[in-house]
Amino acid sequence: MSDFELADNHSLRSIQHSTIDISGLVAGYEQRVLLRNLFFVVPEPAFVAIIGHNGCGKTTLFRALTGRIPYQGTIRVGGRDLRTVARPAAEGLLAYLPQRTTVGFPIAVRELVVMGRYRHHRFLGGYSATDYTLADSALQQVGAAHLATQDFTLLSGGEQQLVWLAQLSLQEATLYLLDEPTQQLDVYYRRRVFALQQQWVAEQGKTILCITHDLDNLTALPPGGHLLNLSRPTPTLLPLTPEVVLAEKAYLESEESFVKR
């Protein structure tokens, strides 16, 4: 059996009331397969912290979800097989905040945030007063309303991340993917970004997959979320509690965790 052949023929689980259902996922690259026969179902709404060593498949999972690499198995988002969806972001299935997002030209914060409404308009269509009202509301919700008229490129890293989150929230997607959103942020902004994600789930009913190495801040989150450790030989969704986070941290620090690699 080759690396890209599935190990078994698990039947698809029920996808009722689930945002994402991954069944028998195998993905990786020509010389190395990083995800082997991955199964998990995420209910709606939910926050899922995805952890693991570098090279365990975290970003590979997001690349499969966003259609940037081929894969075997089945990925369903909102009950739809992603193989049958040509443009998941344009159809509102996925919203994605990559690890590094830059802007190379001066632009007012409000103008950048309103671009989150892009899929509600035809190509080259202008934004309406309603769109700008929603952009203002999104900035207010992330605590960045005072930045609306400022040049985005002159903001601090933490301020920029709040602006990206405001734009992301306007995409009104079924599933939100955040790749290390607290990377290189100070303590204040790391806690704030996690708090905003929890608020999205609790108050707006969003479902979020968040790749993170920030295990210390995970221990401070309220119960109710999930944790997926892709460094485990058989990754499964675990309850996101301080005890579970500490146990998984201890595993990642152990020699045992390198057996899979």
TrEMBL record:
GO terms for molecular function: ATP binding. The lineage of its organism: Bacteria, Pseudomonadati, Bacteroidota, Cytophagia, Cytophagales. The keyword Transport applies. It holds the Pfam family ABC_tran. This is ABC transporter ATP-binding protein. SUPFAM superfamilies: P-loop containing nucleoside triphosphate hydrolases. Keywords: ATP-binding, Nucleotide-binding, Transport. Residues 20-257 form the ABC transporter domain. The keyword Transport applies. Belongs to the ABC transporter superfamily.
